[in-house]
Amino acid sequence: MRVDFHTHIIPEDIPNFVEKFSGERWPTLEKTCSCGANIMVAGKVFREVTDQVWSPEKRIKDMDAEGVDIQVLSPIPVTFSYWAEPEAAEEMSQIQNDFIAETVKQYPNRFIGLGTVPLQDIEASIKEMDRCIHKLGLKGIEIGSNINGKNLDDPSFTAFFEMAEKWEVPLFVHPWETLGKERMPRHNFMYTVGMPSETALAAASLINGGVMEKFPRLKVCFAHGGGSFPYILPRLDQGWKVWPHLRLTSQPPSHYAKNFYFDSLNYDPLNLKYLVDRFGYDKIVMGSDYPFLLREIPPGKVIDDTVQLTEEQKQAILGKNALAFLNIEIKEEIKR
After folding, report:
1. What is the domain-level CATH number for residue 108?
2. Most-buried pick from 56, 68, 94, 216 (CB within 10 A)?
3. Please, are residues 288 and 7 in contact by the beta-carbon 8 Å criterion?
4. How many CB atoms lie within 10 A of CB 191?
């Protein structure tokens, strides 16, 4: 069984919030043909997409061709809209959450849904998380790596993490609004250098800021194999050791990192083997970043190519770990 934990989706008929609420930063979808569109931001093409990004039928056709049993659907990070007025961002979240929930309802054996919340307003975020999990039946929440420049250990987010732990809501951290983006306009470095660095900062903040110590049962998974975080973890430990006056935790960072999950999207068996050795095979979930250009094709290829893994370990990473992370009873057979 193959569960692709990292995929993105957007409603084909998402409203034009530029017209409704004004402001150039709202993402809009402009059709270029019946099977393609541009995601526009501030009058410029942010990303060219095909109907793969909104059509569940197209996705299922691709899944069948590539051997994927289930996709976990999450919003595209550009739609987080943390910068907007809370009421408008809440509406944007609700539209996407309703769409994802309806898609799962249509094809319950092929899709699992993650929601999004307006984290610039914690009270609204908790309310929408409650609706996502307890009314819509979504299985987790995707959040950005920072909220308007605030790292995830900012005290303003404590209540959100508290409720996520209380309600056993898994969180999927995806990089967005990357650090140093003013230095990355060329070569698409925002995607290849900025995002991994941004993810490392998010993970380190949750640890060094004491969030993971305060909420030890919090389930958190990081996109893109955790970015550069796994490889700088020894340096974080050394910093904790030599600067005791800065410590906010009772244990070094590597102690808390053992609770993290990571998707497998690092393309290289050497890197995947490092993740497994460092954190355990049970903390890695298969993810492809479907349907974008940097995605892995076919999903799970890096797992298949990692010859040091046992068949049991491969089966866990390819599907069982994702279902366990999302608190879903493992099914041995999927009815298509």
Report:
1. 3.20.20.140
2. 68
3. yes
4. 16
118 is in which domain, residue-wise? 3-7+56-325
- What pLDDT, in 10s, does the model give residues 269-301? 999 999 999 999 999 999 999 999 999 999 999
Q: Please report the pLDDT score of residue 333 as a whole number.
A: 46
Distance CA 60, CA 51 (A): 12
**Would you say residue 210 lies in a domain?**
yes
Rounded to whole angstroms, what are the CA distances from 3 to 68, 111, 213, 231, 260?
6, 9, 30, 26, 19
- Number of compact structural domains in the chain: 1
**pLDDT band at 329, cuts 50/70/90?**
confident
Joined together, the tokens standing for residue 15 give 């409203």
Tens of pLDDT along 65-119? 999 999 999 999 999 999 999 999 999 999 999 999 999 999 999 999 999 999 9
Instruction: Name the more confident of 248 and 334.
Output: 248
Euclidean distance between CA atoms 78 and 70, whole angstroms: 24
Whether 126 is in a domain gets the answer: yes
| Alpha carbon 288 to its chain's center | 11
- Rg of the Cα trace of the chain? 19
Cβ atoms of 318 and 264 closer than 8 Å: no
Residue 114 lies in a domain: yes
